């Protein structure tokens, strides 16, 4: 009796320890020989209207199928931290809350096919970092926003077939090879499976990448159904993607003003980028590492399919040097170009770390920098300990030990003179540093495009700010007191000289503020002689006169001929009717009675004599030959018609 009671208690404890299974679900535990296992739960009661909340916490696979569930609430599965497979298929779900999949860190597969979902919370995918399979087949999705692209990067199985999608964002296609830019290995076994069929795709430039993807072979993207057809526009309705040819859809092409630019320190600079394509591409400036450029950018589209952009850099410094990327993008694709900027100038000197001079055990002083802690030897007095500021010196990598009485000399950065540390004979060390500045001046002064009364002056500023005032004066060599003065700025680099004398030698000089014009800042030039232009004008006038003298008589003769032809045509039309009438008439010789005629008839006989033409004679003869067959058969009768 005691043993029976103990067994009953143990059986009750075991039943309590087992996880509780919802009444409308079936819970199955799949054990293994090693003592481990997994639990799956199937809920397929047609009367179930809500997601079950008392599912065992160790559930690995949960299936809610063919129920009346209409909504997936917030944090519906947060306690199922071991859930790897979640199937909510062929229900009546119309709404999915953005927080529905909270805490599903190990979920690998999510299937929501066979529902009535019109809007899916794509941002909820960030709660499932391990998700690889997403099935939204046979729903009512009408669009996929561009914001969904970052959340689908890790998805290797995506089924969005049998929805109401007409287009897909170009950025979403960019996450799949080959548009992602990642070249997979030749023997890569990982494939990306896409279900895109049975959607009313509108074939235009927005899905041009998708159409191009369907035409590719030997890529790591597999389409569930290769038969993808266009539903619009009208001229492409029913056409397969593989045979669709899109009009007015061109990938961008980018061209920059230059590929490498070197600019002086402190100058202003404009970087230009031009792009063509259809639809009109957008332009974006970034640095080589992808960071956005927080500088003034001007963009303009002068016409359809063309766009240009200008990046403005003011008072450039050394940190502005590097690569600038101009990226053009439209629905058909993207392209990019790079501009490398180099800054030319003198690096400003900065104080170096303090130098500590201490004494070694062997009575030889050692000098070291506070930051680098790299010592070098000097022959200063053993009892001397001092601190000095020096020009920036790079860290030392070797140790040098000069002989007695020697010193140390290091090379500072490029552009500066060497800094010297010397020892005096009296045993006291001295330290000097010399620096030279690059001379600010105007270079490459020249005059171009000379005419008889104008010329263009060009120059290049070196080491001067672009807003420094500049005075330009010029004068003829034979009248140096007759000076003309113009004021401008150094940054202009170009000036037009007007109202000059023809065939005259001029001297032009440039003077910046606070300086005096020197020999190297002046240049001579000569204006053109306008006599050559007058000679050309005279030649043109003579040629025009000759042409007129020859052409006018020809025109008069031509008009005369035309008038004569018109007059002759009118007269010929008036006489033509009479001539035709005379040609078409002939005389019929007939008698009223039949009697004999003598050849020597008198004047009162019915006999007419008339000169007949050969054509009339032939006509009469032919008629008589026909009518002569009808004759009286008498000796006294004869033919009525004679030729």
UniProtKB/TrEMBL annotation:
Cellular-component GO terms for this entry: dendrite; endoplasmic reticulum membrane
Which residues span the membrane? 539-563
Annotated Ig-like domain residues: 252-342
Repeat keyword on record: yes
Region spans: Disordered: 393-441
Q: Signal sequence: where? A: 1-19
Point to the regions of Polar residues compositional bias: 421-433
The protein depicted here goes by the name Ig-like domain-containing protein
């Amino acid at each position: 009796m005691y043993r029976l009671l103990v067994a009953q208690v143990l059986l009750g404890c075991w039943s309590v320890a087992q996880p509780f299974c919802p009444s409308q679900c079936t819970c199955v535990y799949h054990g293994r020989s090693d003592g481990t296992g997994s639990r799956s739960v199937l809920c397929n009661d047609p009367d179930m209207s809500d997601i079950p909340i008392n599912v065992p916490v160790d559930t690995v696979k949960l299936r809610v199928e063919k129920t009346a569930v209409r909504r997936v609430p917030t944090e519906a599965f947060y306690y199922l931290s071991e859930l790897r497979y979640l199937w909510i298929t062929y229900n009546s779900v119309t709404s999915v809350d953005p927080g529905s999949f909270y805490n599903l860190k190990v979920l690998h597969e999510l299937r929501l096919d066979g529902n009535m979902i019109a809007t899916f919370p794509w941002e909820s995918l960030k709660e499932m970092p391990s998700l690889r399979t997403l099935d939204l087949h046979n729903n009512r999705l009408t669009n996929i926003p561009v914001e969904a692209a970052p959340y689908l990067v890790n998805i290797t199985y995506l089924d969005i077939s049998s929805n109401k999608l007409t287009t897909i964002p170009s950025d979403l296609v960019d996450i799949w090879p080959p548009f992602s830019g990642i070249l997979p290995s030749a023997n890569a076994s990982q494939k990306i499976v896409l279900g895109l069929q049975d959607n009313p795709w509108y074939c235009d430039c927005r899905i041009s990448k998708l159409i191009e993807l369907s035409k590719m072979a030997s890529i790591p993207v597999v389409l569930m159904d290769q038969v993808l057809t266009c539903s619009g526009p009208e001229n492409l309705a029913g056409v397969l993607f593989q045979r669709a040819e899109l009009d007015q859809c061109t990938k961008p092409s980018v061209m920059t003003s230059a590929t490498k630019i070197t600019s002086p320190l402190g100058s202003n600079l404009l970087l230009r980028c031009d792009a063509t394509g259809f639809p009109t591409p957008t332009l974006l400036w970034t640095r080589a590492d992808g960071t956005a450029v927080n500088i003034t950018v001007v963009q303009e589209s002068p016409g359809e399919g063309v766009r240009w952009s200008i990046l403005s850099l003011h008072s450039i410094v050394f940190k502005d040097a590097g690569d600038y990327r101009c990226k053009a993008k439209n629905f058909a694709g993207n392209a990019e170009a790079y501009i490398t900027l180099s800054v030319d100038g003198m690096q400003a000197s900065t104080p170096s770390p303090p130098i500590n001079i201490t004494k070694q055990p062997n009575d030889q002083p050692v000098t070291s920098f506070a930051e680098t802690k790299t010592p070098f030897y000097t022959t200063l007095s053993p009892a001397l300990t001092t601190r000095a500021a020096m020009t920036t010196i790079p860290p030392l990598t070797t140790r040098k030990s000069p002989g007695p009485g020697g010193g140390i000399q290091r090379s500072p950065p490029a552009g500066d003179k060497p800094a010297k540390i010397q020892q005096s004979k009296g045993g006291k060390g001295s330290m000097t540093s010399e620096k030279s500045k690059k001379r600010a001046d105007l270079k490459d002064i020249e005059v171009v495009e000379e005419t008889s009364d104008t010329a263009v002056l060009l120059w290049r500023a070196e080491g001067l700010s672009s807003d420094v005032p500049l005075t330009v004066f010029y004068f003829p060599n034979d009248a140096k007191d007759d000076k003309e003065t113009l004021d401008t700025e150094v940054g202009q680099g170009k000036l037009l000289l007007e109202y000059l004398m023809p065939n005259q030698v001029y001297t032009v000089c440039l003077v910046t503020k606070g300086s005096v014009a020197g020999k190297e800042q002046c240049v001579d030039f000569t204006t053109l002689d306008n006599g050559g232009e007058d000679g050309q004008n005279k030649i043109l006038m003579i040629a025009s006169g000759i042409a007129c003298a020859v052409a006018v008589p020809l025109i008069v003769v031509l008009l005369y001929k035309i008038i004569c032809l018109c007059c002759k045509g009118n007269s010929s039309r008036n006489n033509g009717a009479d001539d035709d009438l005379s040609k078409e008439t002939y005389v019929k010789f007939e008698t009223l009675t039949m009697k004999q005629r003598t050849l020597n008839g008198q004047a009162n006989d019915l006999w007419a004599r008339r000169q007949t033409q050969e054509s009339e004679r032939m006509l009469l003869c032919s008629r008589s030959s026909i009518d002569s067959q009808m004759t009286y058969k008498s000796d006294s009768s004869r033919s009525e018609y004679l030729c």
